[in-house]
Design goal:
Layout: H1 11-19, H2 58-69, H3 77-92, H4 97-105, H5 115-125, E1 149-150, E2 157-158, H6 169-177, H7 190-202
Antiparallel strand pairs: 1-2
Helix pairs in contact: 2-3, 2-4, 3-5
Length: about 200
């Protein structure tokens, strides 16, 4: 016998199916970022992290400190990189960082529109002169340079120690042996002499 057909779902059955809550699909959590150091990084190898100023030139460090001494001349890292060659010329001429910072920051105008432009101009315009090299000592066996002077009376040459007061020996002795002529006695005052005579006459 043929099986009887299944009854079609009525409105009540469809309402029951819609009332049944469906399970919500939960999103999988995002994976946490990997914060472990790379096997080839300095931290993973046990080396301390390097400072960005390690290996910086003295010229770069001086320019980086300029803004702390004078806020109107604060420079960026890129400005310090651009100007460090000009600042290095100062160090090559024997100056130190304090001298450089003083020369760049003294006598500033009231308003500074471009710190990097002003510092570049001063680095070029105020570049100190080259100092002469220290003279080399004389070679062994070379006679030292000796200074000679002349006597102020006769012009005889001699060493400074042999001409005290600028006089040679003969001139000094002749000056000491000269005898000055005796001075004439002073003449008596006629008024005092007449008064003295009148006094003597009164007593007679």
């Amino acid at each position: 016998m043929p099986e009887p057909p299944e009854p079609e779902p009525g409105p009540e059955r469809e309402a029951e199916e819609e009332a049944v809550p469906q399970p919500e699909q939960q999103e999988a959590p995002a994976p946490a970022p990997d914060t472990s150091p790379s096997p080839t990084s300095p931290t993973a190898l046990g080396a301390p992290p390097q400072s960005p100023l390690v290996g910086a030139s003295p010229a770069y460090l001086a320019l980086a400190q300029l803004g702390r001494r004078e806020p109107r001349l604060a420079l960026s890292a890129a400005d310090c990189e651009t100007l460090q060659d000009l600042a290095q010329c100062w160090f090559d001429r024997g100056v130190d960082a304090d001298y450089l910072l003083q020369a760049l920051s003294c006598g500033l105008p009231t308003g500074v529109d471009s710190p990097v432009g002003l510092v570049r101009d001063r680095l070029i315009r105020k570049l100190p002169p080259l100092l002469p090299a220290t003279p080399a000592p004389p070679a062994p066996g070379t006679a030292p340079h000796r200074l000679l002077v002349e006597c102020t009376e006769c012009g005889a040459p001699g060493r400074p120690e042999s001409l005290p007061d600028g006089l040679c020996g003969p001139c000094r002795r002749s000056g000491q042996g000269a005898v000055a002529a005796p001075a004439s006695p002073p003449r008596p005052d006629a008024r005092l002499l007449a008064g003295h005579i009148r006094g003597l006459l009164k007593t007679v």
